[in-house]
Amino acid sequence: MNITAIILAGGRSSRMGSNKALLELGGLTVLERLIRELEPIASRIVIAGGERAAYERFGQEVVTDRYPGAGPLAGLHAGLESSTTRWSLAVACDTPFANRGLFRALLERAEAAEEAAARAVDRASDLAAGASGGFAPTEAILARTPERAHPLLAAYRRSVLPGLEARLREGRLKMTAWTETLCTEYIEGEALANASGLPLEWCTFNMNKPEDYELARSWLESGRSEG
């Protein structure tokens, strides 16, 4: 199944003090690391962020928010709006150790969700006209650790776009509140670690502050990021 990958890179990085997507780890920027991991999985990669000039050199399409200042929901909206595939991967630019194993696991779950939806359509065709049998197709697949779900390490069906746009128009910008309205599946715990080949605590590790960046550098240099 073809899938679009959306790298969300439009944050202000105020706590970090510099653009998180352009920080270097192991000789590559975080953005380059994510592109490298996504290229074997995605048929198209889109960078969703407000700094077109900063990202054009990476050789991927850059899309800008139609709702500037509205946070990650706006970036996800821009990416999904530009997508031509039924499903899209979404990953934040400050998630340096997200790898192709994690992305492949999300893709495989999306494929399974589409197969389940197709079977439900076939069953519904045997029912009375207009009957659905109560089936609700999966709209989102999120990574989840014991602490919380991670809506920016996820896969989304393009059918979520109208509801997402309504939230943006209404100014309801909390991403977790929006994802809780979706029909969602989760990849969690041991499954995350197995898919990535990484310790669970690093699967969804993100860098918000300088000390997070230093921790990521230290971990990479120790060789732990190689699994």
Write up this protein.
There is one protein chain. The chain is of the alpha/beta class and 227 residues long. Helices cover 39% and strands 19% of the residues. It has a seven-stranded mixed sheet with strand order 5-4-1-6-8-7-9, sandwiched between helices. Strands 2-3 form a two-stranded antiparallel ribbon. Helix 2 links the parallel strand 4 (44-48) and strand 5 (61-63). Helix 3 runs antiparallel to helix 5 (161-170) and helix 4 (100-124) crosses helix 7 (190-196). The longest helix is centred in the middle third of the chain and has 25 residues, at 100-124. The two termini are 28 Å apart.
Offer a quick outline of the entry.
With 227 residues, this protein is of the alpha/beta class. It has 9 helices and 9 strands.
List keywords for this structure.
227 residues, alpha/beta, seven-stranded mixed beta sheet, two-stranded antiparallel sheet, 9 helices, 9 strands, 39% helix
* CA distance, first residue to last residue: 28 Å
The ordered H/E elements are EEEHEHEHEHEEHHEHHH
Largest sheet: 7 strands, mixed
Helix content: 25-40%
Low-confidence stretches: none
What is the strand content?
Answer: 15-25%
Q: What's the Cα radius of gyration?
A: 18 Å
Structural class: alpha/beta
Average pLDDT over all residues? 90
The helix tally amounts to 9
